[in-house]
Specification:
- The structure is a single chain.
- Helix 2 (65-78) crosses helix 6 and helix 3 (89-95) packs across helix 4.
- The chain has helices spanning 13-19, 65-78, 89-95, 97-110, 139-142, 144-167, 173-176, 182-191; strands at 26-32, 41-47, 81-87, 118-122, 133-136.
- Strands 3-2-1-4-5 form a 5-stranded mixed beta sheet.
- It has a domain at 13-157: Ribonuclease H-like superfamily/Ribonuclease H (Nucleotidyltransferase, domain 5, 2-Layer Sandwich), CATH 3.30.420.10.
- Strand 1 (26-32) and strand 2 form a beta hairpin.
- The protein is elongated, with a radius of gyration of 17 Å.
- By secondary structure, the chain is of the alpha/beta class.
Length: 208
């Protein structure tokens, strides 16, 4: 499979860099669901084996859903450890989306069965844990462990939104996963706001 904008450096560059500095349990961390108008934000932390999992990884948003599901299963079965952190739509409204995302990332790391000794984080923000860490902009496109976390976070959240669809089929969360598509915005106009919507977000708060 060919991916757009492939990095010029190997995807395991950052892992090898910090293995070379003596770290042994390097966790990649990423999130899914910052932008939607409804549902939680979900983060994942993944510690890959030192030699990887024998699969080409990349930003989950650039991978077809069927292949993403396949990679999700492989990552779960072959990783050293995987942790998930979830922050609800209510907490997003209370904290704001940035702080909620950072909290989800902390929870994901804390939920790993094996504590990491270094963290690679997608984006440019550090998280509040007393561990060595490095934020990497567009990390899901240039770093294996962050790409793995991206895939786990997105598949986990997508499955949660499928459950939301069962409760509120009129919004068709199964299709757009809570993002502000034209279809979703029209549904909000027609049916109003449900309990899963983020009440502080533009596109929702106008209909309260």
């Amino acid at each position: 499979m060919l991916f757009p904008s492939l990095p010029t450096q190997p995807m395991d560059y950052f892992e090898k860099l910090y293995y070379g500095q003596g770290y042994r349990r390097i966790a990649g961390v990423d999130e899914a669901g910052r932008g939607p108008l409804a549902g939680p934000v979900v983060a994942a932390a993944v510690i890959l084996p030192k030699n990887g999992i024998g699969q080409e990884l990349f930003d989950s948003k650039q991978i077809p859903s069927k292949r993403r599901e396949e990679l999700y299963k492989i990552i779960l079965s072959k990783s050293v450890a995987v942790g998930i952190g979830t922050v609800s739509h209510e907490e997003i409204d209370q904290l704001n989306i940035l702080q909620a995302t950072l909290k989800a990332m902390v929870l994901a790391v804390q939920n790993l069965s094996l504590s990491p000794d270094f963290i690679l984080i997608d984006g440019h923000q550090f998280i509040q844990l007393p561990l060595p860490q490095r934020p990497i902009r567009k990390g899901d496109r240039i770093c294996n462990s962050i790409a793995a976390a991206s895939i786990v976070a997105k598949v986990t959240r997508d499955r949660m939104m499928l459950e939301c669809h069962q409760k509120y089929p009129q919004y068709n969360f199964a299709r757009h996963k809570g993002y502000g598509t034209k279809e979703h915005r029209r549904a909000i106009e027609r049916f109003g706001v449900c309990e899963l919507h983020r009440k502080t977000f533009k596109g929702v708060k106008e209909y309260l």
